[in-house]
User: Fold this.
Amino acid sequence: MKTLNELSNELKKKNIRLTHQRLKILEYLYNAKTHPTVEEIYSALKKEVPSLSKTTIYNTLNYLSELNIIKSLIIDENEARFDGVTDNHGHFKCSKCGKIYDFDINMDALAADRLDNFEINEKTVYFKGICSGCLSKI
Amino acid sequence: MKTLNELSNELKKKNIRLTHQRLKILEYLYNAKTHPTVEEIYSALKKEVPSLSKTTIYNTLNYLSELNIIKSLIIDENEARFDGVTDNHGHFKCSKCGKIYDFDINMDALAADRLDNFEINEKTVYFKGICSGCLSKI
DNA sequence: TATTATATTGTAATCATTACAAAGAAAAAA
DNA sequence: TTTTTTCTTTGTAATGATTACAATATAATA
Assistant:
């Protein structure tokens, strides 16, 4: 759980303009562990920040994503998802309940001969299947 | 290079109705190694099959994808890409030239403790960076 | 506080994808 | 082969996520 104060300091350090919207969006992203979509963030914050516009959410997420403060995921078509954790880790999406789980993985061990002389800047790993929760309900 | 004849037999074996469009789309997908988008397939085949509609391409690709005859990729936002090779392999996308390279990778070695008791049906690995061709041009 | 630079907002535009219904083609039956 | 049935193709319109843009509002700075 990060407080608004901690988030403020983080942004200040990086010379990112502090706005109410940015802090709220970041707060939500860090504390929700759901890898939310823009839609989810919008619905969740509308009550607290009634003026909030989706464009702002897109702007903010894209901006922070470029600065590597958050990470955008592409797990399924149609919807971008966002993650407050930028360390490399894998994602698992349950096809039944739709939930996304994080898991640790050693990306350095992922190497490919054919990519010698390539500059690799980003490694992504995701799995799909059925989570233990859904399996136990069958 | 697969011929139309070979493709016909493949579809017949699986009881998939043979149509001119399906064969042409599959032929293109198998022989182009570019992981094309729907747009690319459409532009490439329009001359040969003037009646071809994008809806047909979507229908065909989604259908064959469900049957595991081809594979759909999500490497970047916005556009679905398709791959005639369904064996597990990784994809590398060059941020400079946009080209997508295949590479072999041992997916079985990818395991995560936290996913014990999960049923994993699909593993995806993709990298981003700059390919050797683009690097040598700098 | 006044000024300047940047962010937010709402609306309209864009672009990939899907829904749908009519027309056409392939497979099966006669 | 011809007829019938079933499935596919097509074009158009609808959908839904995302972006462009210009006016307004807010944060940082002097």
Notes: Residues 68 and 86 of chain A are 7 Å apart (CA to CA). Chain A has two domains: 4-83, 90-136. Residues 54-66 of chain A form the longest helix (13 residues).
